[in-house]
What we know:
Elements: H1 2-8, H2 11-36, H3 42-60, H4 64-83, H5 90-111, H6 119-124, H7 132-151, H8 153-161, H9 163-168, H10 173-195, H11 201-212, H12 218-243, H13 247-269
Helix pairs in contact: 2-7, 2-10, 2-11, 2-12, 3-4, 3-5, 3-10, 3-11, 4-5, 4-10, 7-10, 11-12, 11-13, 12-13
Amino acid sequence: MSELIEMLSFPFMQKAIIAGALVALCAALLGVSLVLKRYSMIGDGLSHVGFGALALAAVLNATPLLIAIPVVIVAAFLLLRIKDSSKIKGDAAIAVISTGALAIGVLLVSLSNSGNVDLTNYMFGSILAMTDSDVWLSIILSIVVLAVYIILYGKIFAVTFDETFAKATGVKTNAYNTVLSVLTAVTIVLGMRLMGAMLISALIIFPPLTSMRVFRSFRSVVISSAVVAVVNLVAGIILSYFLGLPTGACIVCVNIVALLIFSLIGKIKN
């Protein structure tokens, strides 16, 4: 217990837990809709775009989030437009944009004079890479994302479960799908500093899937996902600190264990 208290006394750990918990909460809430709409891999695609944007920011010596957020939002718009095209399906669109952005990011760093840019932090995340400005921007934007989600909860619910019926009743489904994608884009960029481009999509996918093993109603899954996401993130950070392991990987492993436990509970319950 004394070691845990000592860990929590470090300012960088406090910032990581606060910012990380908010990002995990946003990712879990948005993830419920994305998983149910069978579009959960948008998180993986946008995270690769975010990596390319962070590499560009490093080359330009600019503030990472101020470059990455607009770029990833534009990518989210493109994914929606391509997804609606009959020529390219959603999964193919994600593959094209994500692999292209990843390759461009690596080339930007390789061709620049910034040979000291550490791609590992961008690929797999690092608590120590989070500056004070990153943390405060993450907190502010996370609160905005949560507020928008709560305000539009009813419309997001309608679009998630039956988009055709929602459109027939006058709901502007395209607009709400766009809002959902933009919120996802912002959340992914915020989480990349902690989880990295390779692992951030886990925050979107695992909590909803875990909750769906036990709960059935939309509201129950949303609430459970939020709790599971925050608990798993904090547990992963604590585990990484004591074992000296990468934070992002520990958080994913904790989510895997939670998924297995909930799956067992679901089988016993049924």
